[in-house]
């Protein structure tokens, strides 16, 4: 029996190897049509790792196939006032297209959920592009659905205002 070639790690962004993997995967995600469709700017490339390191609630998970970084989840701890408990929000989530359908995304979500449970979180949240059908199937299979806090109010929507 061979060892599992997939490893999920909770990244330590003080390690150059984890910094490089995070930047490489985040740039690939930025170039993806379901990301921003273009590479990270030079300014973003220079600032993202220091910014993530300085942000007090940053959680980064990396997926490796053997020693190759193939998946990424950048998350942030938040707080649910109504539940009076922490939560984890998945901000960026990406698996290289050639490594999809191999269970890597499911394993990344499982690692995030396990960590959230260890933190005593009440939920894990995320946003997804409406037409990102592949990711939506992965999330639905992992138990995610549109948030409905009060049925009479309808489902929650994610809104944004650029500054």
Structural commentary:
This protein is an alpha+beta fold. The protein has a single domain, classed as Aminopeptidase (3-Layer(aba) Sandwich), CATH 3.40.630.30. Helix content is 33%, strand content 25%. A 5-stranded mixed β-sheet has the order 1-2-3-4-5, sandwiched between helices. The longest helix has 16 residues. The mean pLDDT is 93.
Q: What would a concise description of this structure say?
A:
With about 160 residues, the protein is an alpha+beta fold.
Key attributes of the depicted protein:
163 residues; alpha+beta; Aminopeptidase; 5-stranded mixed β-sheet; 5 strands; 33% helix
The CATH homologous superfamily is named: Gcn5-related N-acetyltransferase (GNAT)
Order of helices and strands: EHHEEEHEH
What is the CATH class name? Alpha Beta
Count structural domains: 1
CATH topology title: Aminopeptidase
Low-confidence stretches: none
Strand runs, count: 5
Name given to the CATH architecture: 3-Layer(aba) Sandwich
In what range is the share of β-strand residues? 15-25%
Summarize the SSE layout with pairings.
Blueprint lengths: L5 E5 L5 H16 L10 H13 L3 E8 L2 E13 L4 E11 L8 H15 L5 E3 L6 H9 L22
Parallel strand pairs: 4-5
Antiparallel strand pairs: 1-2, 2-3, 3-4
